[in-house]
Amino acid sequence: MRIPYAPTTPPETSSAETKATYNRISERRKPRPLIPLDLALLHNPSIADGWNTLLGAIRSKTSLSPALMEMAVSRIAILNGAVWEWDAHAPLALKGGLARAALDVVRRADVVPSGGRERSEEEVEKLAEDEWAVLCLTDQMTRSVVVDDAVFESCKALLGETGVMEMTATVATYNCVSRFLVALNVGEKNGLNMEMPKET
């Protein structure tokens, strides 16, 4: 990382508020220890606490399927060159139910949604309609910020109003995460290849 990591436990001289922040983040991570992302953020416990609250809601308080959520996060990692994010979330996409062939398309595809081209035969064969719609939304939000009406309406029709808001929030949040990870080289993985997770 480009700056030292914060300590894994709050220093003895820490305020009660800082200790409480460490505890909240540790509770969300259980049974795992704090991860490099946490230790980068804990340079400022207030930012780390807000980040933890937002990510906790995105990760566990939405109606989104784990497969679609993790597919979107994995695609953001590909588009932004966030190897650490890919390594963390691509296995979760598979665990959440995304087909391995679909994840490989997410990793390799050059998606140009609505108005750019028709879906390739591989994309039609390996991605379900909702997966394609979320992939297009993710690409447009990540690459150009502006989302075509056709792409948004397709996602809304498949996910519902609440679901499309949750997916939009997820994509926005994980773009923030990936940019933080890459800029600070959290986990020291910048520049490494993004490989498909090993089969279990």
Automatic annotation (TrEMBL):
InterPro entries recorded: AhpD-like, CMD-like
Region ranges (Disordered): 1-27
Domain Carboxymuconolactone decarboxylase-like: start-end pairs: 45-116
UniProt biased composition (Low complexity): 1-18
Pfam families: CMD
Identification of the protein by name: Carboxymuconolactone decarboxylase-like domain-containing protein
Lineage of source species: Eukaryota, Fungi, Dikarya, Ascomycota, Pezizomycotina
